[in-house]
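Troubleshooting log. The previous structure file for this entry was overwritten by mistake, so regenerating from the original sequence record. Sequence copied from the archived sheet and checked twice against the printout by T.R.
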Amino acid sequence: MWECAEGSVLGDQLYPKYELPDGRQLHFYQSQKRLVDEVPFHLLPPPELPHSLEAMGLDGLPSPELHAGAYLALRRRLEMLPPPLAIKPHPPAAPRVYRQGFLPTVYPKCPFLLTGQEHGHGVIRTKVLKSLIAPEPEAEKQSWEDAVFKTHQSVFALRKKTSDGRAYFNGPKAWDRTFEMDWTLVSSKQGLVKAVGGEAVLNKLKVIVRTSYDLLRCLFEEYALDDKSPMLMGLNEFSMLASDANISDSNSAFCRTGDMDTLFIVSNMPFTDKTPKLQQVNSLNQPRSLNLYEFLDLTIRVALAKYNKSEPSLDPEAALQKLLDENLCRVTLLRPGTGINTDIFRRERLYYEEVDDILKENLPLLKALYNYYKGVFRGYRMPPNGFVALMTEAKLVNDQFLTTREVLYCFVKSRMLVFDPWEFKEKNESLGLVDFLEAIGRVADHVSLPSEQEATALGYDSIFELYSATLNGLVSIPRRHSSGFEQKTRPLHEKIAGVLDVMKGMLCYKFNLNHETKLKRYLQEHTTFAGGVIK
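Regenerated output below.
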């Protein structure tokens, strides 16, 4: 193909000319004489749609035998397709009762706390009625007392012996004793006594702080998770809390960001008294980080700066109550896990026979895991970094399913109250065996792995295989609606079974083992600190 040259007589005689749309003329040549002239053709209008059987070329309707053959062929094709994933129904208003729990349910003692119903993250079942349980035949009916699983026969029986409250829950007496220890330290700060106007005013503030002690402790634990140590609150974490609670105000004369930093430093100052207990606290206290009693001290100072100084008509008690109602309580709406009492999970999800069965079945391996990962850090109990190391090496910590902060949240919420955290500092900052089992349950409830039925529907033999394929990018699993603090749609024992399946598979792969028994033996042989081994 080439462009025609003006005045080329030879080219005009040998090759035909073709004109392009833009007016240029070209010569085209194809060897072996396969060049043909263009043949024009015209589009025909489409025929009209048929309106009768004759127009469609049919003499009548298909016979019933033909219908049956087509139906059977279609049915065979449908049977060859993989089953679709079951669509989870919308959760009901109240959680389903799978079986009566270990203990009779009690009403919550902290009415100010936002419940799961108000958050939309679950409902506190304050009383279990017989009418909620599916009816049974007359011959198989059991009495209510006979159906209750005995707690002292479960894996949680040790909690009543080892916890300071000598109970399976953090009851009112345990909260009172813990608060009294913290308030003893708060009232020993002479600077705070002078700031509020004397011990008489401080005693009035004590009543308000005790009423809101659960909330303040939850706020402290929530924001301490963002610090390097989950038991201490740093300056950055307190600044974040002040911002979320709308406490810091650049237009205020006493609550600017610099004022908040100054109050933080004042609350963090050591005791000047030389009593043995206060000196013990000073020796264990860390600079530039708040303990819980210092956070209570700081809360009172912030209330005085924000409302008492700017509004002299408000006395210190009214200023503190206003800070709690208008500022700190709003944080529970921003962070769902802040206003949920730790005993709700134990009462509604953990203390059930099915959970006890799955934990007892895997108890030898769980003890081996507990001893190994607490032994790595040379402790008698499991520290936070030991639990995080276990979840990380089991590949449960990743961007899709679980974060390190969520693991630490499960760790902190699994501890029981310690009356004197200074005398028993290690106990307050670590997990015992029963606390470790609860932490596994909280992780399983939080991460919400796919179910066994979903794994089978996608062609995988186990949850571990599906989870591994997800991490390798072979399959994509959306985050479940029941993950995190949302209302749960499956019983806890099913979720624990899935988490344990993933942990066994991932740890066997890490240590180059091929069976659960070999994994348990390997952990037992390589436990580096035998002094605190749980047998």
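DSSP finds 26 helices and five strands in the chain. Archived copy saved in two places this time.
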